[in-house]
Write a structure and sequence with these properties.
The protein is α+β, with helices and mostly antiparallel strands. The chain has a single domain, classed as minor pseudopilin epsh domain (minor pseudopilin epsh fold, 3-Layer(bab) Sandwich), CATH 3.55.40. 28% of the residues lie in helices and 30% in strands. The longest helix has 52 residues.
Length: 220
């Protein structure tokens, strides 16, 4: 009778190779899922802060500001109709209680940190992504963060405007959120967007579909 000699070196190598292949595939899938979650988290955080700003502005009949800082450092800013300087955390979306028009009593009401490896309004992506929007959203300009943090205000009527002194103009704009290695043809789950509607204070949350290239509304 032939004795059981156990596994051969070749058999062990085959098992190790199969294990490495399966581990690699699992990591690729997991990393893709993590990037999708982070992209959604960034878009949802800004959506939530802006929704809260509009609700508070209407309820309390005063201005509320929103500051989006995508830089890697804290930004010290003086907001509209104020002499008070406030600090805004790196990679964050911040809700600011603007207080009364007469006093410099602004204060940070809420701050949400954004994932550091999510890109927002990257120039190389905004052009093809804008054209995929329906009318009128394809005409909404994406904000260029090279100019510094994005700042807007919600007035007591809930409109999105450029200043907190009843002299601001309405803001219409778009924000595109993507993974750092997004591929427009292969990574639809990694693309999200928000659009701002100044006259109504409305917000829409979008998901990108590559074939055919289009944006699908998820929240409004």
């Amino acid at each position: 009778m032939r004795k059981n000699a156990g596994f051969t070196i070749l058999e062990l190598l085959v098992v190790v190779v199969l294990f490495l292949i399966l581990s690699t595939l699992s990591l690729i899938s997991l990393n893709s899922h993590r990037r999708m979650v982070k992209t959604e988290d960034a878009a949802t955080s800004i959506f939530t802060v802006m929704r809260q700003a509009r609700l508070q502005a209407i309820t309390r009949r005063q201005f509320y500001g929103v500051v989006i800082n995508t830089s890697g450092s804290t930004q010290r800013l003086t907001l509209s109709n104020s002499i008070t300087q406030l600090d805004f955390l790196p990679q964050s979306a911040t809700l600011v209680d603007m207080g009364t028009l007469a006093n410099n009593d602004e204060s940070v009401a809420l701050a949400k940190r954004l994932p550091i490896d999510v890109l927002i309004n990257v120039t190389t992506l905004t052009s093809p992504l804008k054209t995929a929007f329906p009318v009128p959203e394809n005409g909404f300009p994406p904000y260029d963060f090279a100019n510094g943090p994005f700042i807007c205000y919600f007035d007591p009527a809930g409109r999105i405007v450029t200043s907190a002194d009843n002299r601001g103009v309405q803001v219409y704009g778009s924000f595109f959120f993507s993974s750092f290695d997004v591929d427009l043809t292969k990574g639809p789950t990694l693309m999200r967007a928000l659009t701002l509607y100044g006259a109504t204070g409305g917000l829409k949350y979008w998901r990108y579909i590559p074939t055919p290239a289009q944006w699908i509304t998820q929240l409004s």
